[in-house]
Design brief:
By secondary structure, the chain is an alpha/beta fold. The chain has helices at residues 16-31, 52-63, 70-77, 90-107, 124-133, 156-167, 185-196, 198-201, 226-229, 233-251, 260-272, 279-285, 358-363, 410-414, 419-429, 438-457, 473-480, and strands at residues 4-11, 35-46, 80-84, 113-117, 144-148, 175-177, 209-217, 286-289, 315-320, 332-337, 344-351, 373-379, 383-391, 399-407. The model has no long low-confidence stretch (mean pLDDT 96). It binds 6-O-phosphono-beta-D-glucopyranose. Residues 180, 218, 237, 379 line the site of 6-O-phosphono-beta-D-glucopyranose (BG6).
């Protein structure tokens, strides 16, 4: 491993994400030697008045499950420093700058700085601007990179405003917008499968593919996050970012190389061909849902901190079209929701049936052939299944579905980094492949905004699906209308 020297500055150091994901991820990188153990430090900031010791106790606690020994966790935590910080107070940035310079020297970090903003989104721009204005960026030859959490805006206009604010302090190539779905092993495997196999890429088009289905299902409801979620809804929370990113990877043309600039170029081209709907098309091609009650499970409107007249959607299904030569007439169906039958993410690529069923023709019977389906299971297991038609053993020529399955082994699982570990590592290396560029994010907002606008005009008939189901009936009808069905439906 090449170890990188760096000083991290984390905004939102007392937050939940930091404890659950960021500290364990940085710890794993430290253990594996990807951050230089002698030459890294992290300044955590938050509103609370914590001492370094309190902060370090939190770090030890959050990494202890992965630590080989308490000593290892403690020696990791010794690199962490805390500063109480009010993000709107300019003087606090002066203090941060002084502290950063001091730690730079103490740890000899080559002036490399990684800023990580993981806090309420209305402060993203303020923080970024103050960092520059108060000399928190290093100017002695090291790199300055900004990792920024979601949500990146709540519509095109607010995203653009945020982007302009960031742009005053950081260039686009210094900004790493997190979409943790891009850090998932199986999402990355889509690219390996497509571009590493002529067998796959050769049939990855409208001549052979009938439709593609992407499902991001969650078993849990809104939990304690209603404060954020009710103002967001599934369209902003899961579709504009994760789902569209997955679609893009499925739809993009082959990049000329695996460099981040080359991959992003193709992703943007794909997104530009994604049809932005008219109002009528939105009503026809998109479905929203909100969960009702079921037994002990309260309906969404009676969850903690949700207004009883909330019309926030907890479910979205839709049909997406890429208007280019490869995908003409191939619908991409998407769906995502809370409180569904299970927690899983999967991609089903449904192939066309043979033009002629010679077996049925010989018998003069109905065709028994199924569509070939390539299913990529992204979560919770990493698995690939290819469903084919084969011969039933025995006399005659009866057909039956057969499945070729590849499941990730325990050894592979053990070396698979969590999305945050992988993404932070990429940012440390300066590799932006698995981060969302502004052109991607903005295009995705343009797509989502029209849907939002139509939905804000129309009154939905909520609640309309039962917890534990796969969503409202209208999501099934969306495919039935096209003579199709969800591959997974139970
Ligand atoms: C987040 C959403 O981005 O993704 C959450 O804000 C959602 O609402 C989560 O639960 C799902 O991520 P994962 O990795 O658990 O599928």
């Amino acid at each position: 491993a090449t170890a990188t020297r760096a000083l991290f500055m984390l905004f939102g150091a007392t937050g939940d994400l930091a404890k659950r994901k960021l500290y364990p991820s940085i710890f794993n990188l430290y253990k594996k030697g990807y951050v230089d153990n002698d030459h890294f430090a992290l300044i955590g900031t938050g509103r609370r008045e914590w001492s370094d010791d309190t902060f370090r106790d939190v770090i030890v606690e959050s990494v202890s499950a992965n630590a080989d020994s308490e000593e290892q966790a403690k020696s990791f935590a010794s690199h962490f420093y805390y500063m109480a910080h009010d993000v709107t107070n300019p003087e606090h940035y002066d203090a941060l700058s002084d502290y950063a310079n001091k730690l730079d020297q103490q740890y000899d970090t080559n002036g490399n700085r990684i800023f990580y903003i993981s806090m309420a989104p209305n402060f993203f721009g303020t923080v970024a601007q103050n960092l520059k204005a108060h000399n928190c960026l290093s100017d002695n030859g090291g790199f300055n990179r900004l990792i920024i959490e979601k949500p990146f805006g709540r519509d095109y206009d607010s995203a653009e405003e945020l982007n302009n604010a960031l742009g005053k302090s950081f260039n686009e190539d210094q900004v790493y917008r997190i979409d943790h779905y891009l850090g998932k092993e199986m999402v990355q495997n889509v690219l390996a499968l497509r571009f590493g196999n002529p067998l796959v890429e050769g049939i990855w088009n409208n001549e052979y593919i009938d439709n593609i289905q992407v499902t991001l299902a969650e078993k849990l409801g809104v939990e304690e996050r209603a404060g954020y979620y009710d103002g967001s809804g599934a369209l902003r929370d899961m579709v504009q970012n994760h789902t569209i990113q997955m679609l893009t990877i499925l739809a993009m043309e082959d990049p000329i190389s695996f460099k981040d600039v080359d991959i992003r170029r193709e992703k943007i081209r794909a997104l530009k061909s994604m049809r932005v709907y008219t109002e009528d098309e939105v009503r026809k091609n998109f479905v929203r849902g909100q969960y009702g009650a079921n037994g002990d499970q309260l309906d969404y409107r009676h969850e903690d901190n949700v207004p009883t007249d909330s019309i926030t959607e907890t479910y979205v299904a839709g049909k997406v079209l890429f208007e280019n030569k490869r995908w003409k007439n191939v619908p991409f169906y998407i769906r995502t929701g809370k409180m569904l039958s299970d927690k899983f993410t999967r991609i089903d690529v449904v192939f066309k049936k043979p033009l002629i069923d010679v077996f049925a023709a010989a018998k003069g019977s109905e065709s028994e052939l199924n569509n070939n389906v390539l299913t990529l299971f992204v979560d919770p297991v990493n698995k690939i299944i290819l469903r084919l038609n084969g011969k039933k053993a025995g006399q005659g020529m009866e057909m039956q579905p057969i499945e070729l399955t590849h499941t990730q082994s325990d050894e592979e699982k053990a070396v698979t980094p969590e999305p945050y570990e992988r993404l932070i590592h990429d940012a440390i290396l300066g590799n932006a492949t698995n981060f969302a560029s502004w052109d991607e994010v903005s295009r995705a907002w343009e797509f989502a905004d029209v849907i939002r606008q139509v939905w804000d005009k129309d009154q939905p008939d909520f609640p309309n699906y039962t917890p534990g189901s796969m969503g409202p009936d209208a999501a099934d009808e969306l495919l039935e209308r096209d003579g199709r069905a969800w591959v997974f439906n139970s």
